[in-house]
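Here's what a typical entry looks like (EexN family lipoprotein):
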Amino acid sequence: MNKAIIVALLVWIGFVVAGCEKTYSVAEFKKDPKLLEQWAMKCMISGSLDSQNCKNADKAYREVHARDWPGASFVHDDEKKTEDKKEEN
């Protein structure tokens, strides 16, 4: 019985800690290239743009690289189209 309670408590703590991740703004990503690179890698590896940090990092990435690489994004075109469709609905 105690083991079940301990396991449940550890799982719950894991969810709480994962859900308490700091959300960075686009401006913060633009000011800190290392932070932007770190989050770009996290988002590319996970293959998901569901988190607000991934969305903000992608927007900052596009803004930072707009002059040297028009259309730059670490999001694949098909993922971006899906995101655009979700926003329209």
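The chain has a mean pLDDT of 77.

More examples are in the samples folder.
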